[in-house]
Specification:
By secondary structure, this protein is mainly α. Helices cover about 50% and strands about 5% of the residues. It starts with a helix and ends in a 12-residue tail after the last helix.
């Protein structure tokens, strides 16, 4: 648990908070989006749900459901769980009721004993009373029974604050109460007038629901679910029509990418669209925030080419932005508002570490490591947490220096405390991000990760495999719309750490990729893989040859691209020791362009890896190298001087860059 989900979960996502606040304040019949938070596992969606509970739960009716795959959450179960929580009594409002949904669930729950439709019509009221009485005698009310069969879907989300968890428990506890003497007449009449039900007689309509559930085909089951969702939305509209009722209800739907979650969202969106657009009813008063770490199949191919929406960032999310960019109301895609959760920037990582100090004072010596943590993880929230956990539960030297650098070099192999298990940091990271991937699949992905462009890696090293499409659908690419699709740096770093344990495979993979780029005459990319392969002399010859023939700024760009290559340096030693191991077998005595460039290549190669140079202690060596190069070049030296100054007075960027 965290002390404050608002502070922790929405750090860097304040637009989500203001968007929900804006939605809750709208008139009851105003159109609101289905906001969906998209990103890889660990991008902070569950923490965002917790923060929204904490911020709005004390004064607004809310309901939370975890739609993860381990919960076999049928749509009817999900509706009952939501309604049960939304019935919580709040000081400012009257209690909300869900008579139509409850009646539809009752009528379809237990199989009616009948030989004809007429017999069913005569008996159904008596049967419904008996069903309700039995449920109330055992659970307190009918909806509470669903907490017994599906209560696992309403546990506090990962990273929930103590305040959010308390609010959720209060919603579950106060949602259960006895409602003696409930009458079904009004609800039954609503079912008799529903367009999906053939019979217009109220009680025969309820019998029809029962037949769909127990004797119907797939189409009947689909109709039943659609009618129940429509009943849920109608109850909400009727609730807000009374005085002393809320303007909106907050629904938090976590892990909506699961099989059950996708179906639930599909039914919810379709019911809203059918009621609001097709039938012309007022819009339901729901403020919906869902989350998904998969591309939803209903949106078409994961390329996004056929989906009318463009992903938006969370920082400036608003109703105005949604209204401006939403597709026309002809399609039910109009209700989506997809927000791509971004990684934390450096300042946000630093603040997160400082906030963690309130619970874990033993992190105090590591606050100065914020730049290293950000550089290593690219600010993925779950990765930041895992690295801090590894630091807390290990014997890392508390003082910054070479000893700490040597320890941090082995960080991926350090163990975490995860219940009875003690996985390494690399294992825990890959298990979380690649859930469902077996070892063979992970090994293949590690090989493909050797290429910066994952699509090329998959094409060269795993042709015909659906791996690239699956990674894209899981939001594991750094920038989904970028020209060059690259894995998230944290995932790629852990995969390459895994591949480095197979040195022969490492060399083979980079040899194949270098040959691919050589045949395509893409020499910079070829040299990138030759350096990863350890062919320092060939890379040096290339950059020495380019130095006098291209503008200095272009040369620097090529140099930076090549020396960002991955490595399989020894798992021991600090940056100076690693650098010494890369020196030439017979260093020359004279300072030449070749000797300076070779040293610059190896220095920046080590510097580019945050695990190899955690404290960025090689900055001054890089600055000196560029100063030397400026003296060895006859003209166009300003860019070289500027590059020297950049390293000498290095400031960590607030956002992730391609460096490192």
């Amino acid at each position: 648990m965290t002390e404050s989900g608002v502070r922790m979960g929405l750090r860097g996502r304040s637009g989500i908070l203001s968007l929900v606040d804006e939605c809750l304040r709208q008139p009851p019949d105003a159109e609101r989006p289905v906001t969906i938070l998209l990103g890889p596992p660990g991008s902070g969606a569950s923490e965002a749900h917790s923060a929204l509970m904490e911020q709005f739960g004390p004064e607004n009716p809310f309901a939370y459901v975890n739609l993860a795959g381990e919960h076999a959450l049928l749509p009817r179960y999900g509706l009952a769980l939501l309604a049960g929580q939304l019935e919580r009594k709040l000081p400012r409002y009257r209690r909300s009721h869900f008579p139509r949904l409850t009646l539809g669930l009752l009528a379809s729950d237990h199989e009616l004993r009948m030989t004809s439709l007429a017999e069913g019509r005569r008996n159904i009221r008596r049967e419904l009373d008996a069903f309700q009485e039995r449920a109330e005698a055992r659970y307190g009310d009918y909806l509470a029974a669903f907490f017994e069969v599906a209560g696992g879907a309403v546990g506090a989300p990962d990273g929930a604050s103590t305040a959010a968890a308390a609010l959720l428990m209060d919603a579950l506890r106060h949602g259960r109460r006895r409602l003696p003497g409930r009458k079904f007449t009004g609800g039954a009449a609503w079912y008799g007038g529903h367009p999906l039900i053939r019979s217009q007689d109220p009680w025969e309509a309820l019998v029809e629901l029962n037949l769909w559930r127990h004797d119907g085909d797939e189409d009947g089951q689909e109709r039943l679910d659609r009618v129940l969702f429509s009943a849920f939305l109608e109850d909400l509209r009727r609730n807000v029509a009374h005085s002393f009722m809320p303007r909106s209800y907050l629904l938090l739907l976590d892990n909506s990418h699961s099989e059950y979650g996708r179906r639930f969202l599909d039914l919810l969106i379709r019911a809203r669209h059918d009621d609001t657009v097709v039938a012309g009813a007022p819009c339901d008063p729901l403020t919906i925030v869902a989350s998904s770490n998969r591309w939803l199949p209903r949106w078409g191919p994961a390329t996004g080419d056929q989906w009318p929406w463009q992903l938006r960032g969370p920082d400036r999310a608003s109703l105005g932005d949604w209204s401006e960019h939403r597709p026309t109301r002809d399609s039910d895609d109009t209700w989506w508002y997809p927000l791509r959760l971004r990684d934390l920037n450096l300042d946000e990582v630093r603040i997160r570490i400082e906030l963690e100090l309130r619970r874990h004072a033993d992190l105090a010596p590591f606050t100065r490591l914020a730049p290293f943590v950000h550089r290593l993880t690219c600010g993925l929230p779950r990765a930041v947490h895992q690295v801090l956990d590894a630091l807390r539960h290990s014997d890392v030297p508390p003082e910054g220096g070479l000893e700490q650098d040597r320890w941090l070099r082995t960080l991926p192999e350090r163990t975490l405390r995860d219940g009875e298990d003690t996985p390494t940091l690399a294992e825990a990271a890959l298990d979380h991000l690649l859930q469902g991937f077996d070892d063979t699949r992970r090994d293949t992905l590690a090989e493909c990760a050797a290429a910066r462009d994952l699509s090329i890696g998959a094409r060269v090293l795993s042709p015909g495999d659906s791996l690239f499409g699956e990674i894209r659908a899981r939001w594991l690419l750094l920038s989904p719309g970028a020209v060059m699709p690259t894995l998230h740096p944290w995932l790629r770093r852990m995969l390459l750490w895994r591949l480095a344990r197979r040195p022969d495979d490492w060399d083979t993979v980079h040899e194949l990729l270098a040959e691919h780029f050589r045949s395509g005459q893409r020499t910079v990319q070829e040299m990138y893989h030759r350096l990863a392969w350890g062919q320092i002399e060939e890379v040096t010859d290339y950059l020495v040859g380019r130095f006098p023939t291209v503008p200095a700024a272009q040369w620097i760009n090529e140099f930076n691209a090549i020396t960002a290559a991955p490595n399989r340096f020894p798992a021991i030693g600090g940056p100076l020791e690693l650098l010494a191991g890369l020196g030439p077998a017979e260093p020359g005595e004279a300072v030449t362009t070749g000797s300076v460039i070779r040293e610059l290549i190896t220095t920046r190669w080590v510097w580019s890896d945050p695990l190899a140079d955690p404290g960025m202690r090689l900055n001054n060596l890089l600055a000196d190298g560029f100063n030397q190069l400026s003296r060895l070049r006859r003209n166009d030296v300003v860019a070289l001087f500027n590059e020297a100054e950049r390293y000498r007075h290095w400031r960590h960027p607030l956002i992730s860059t391609s460096e490192g």
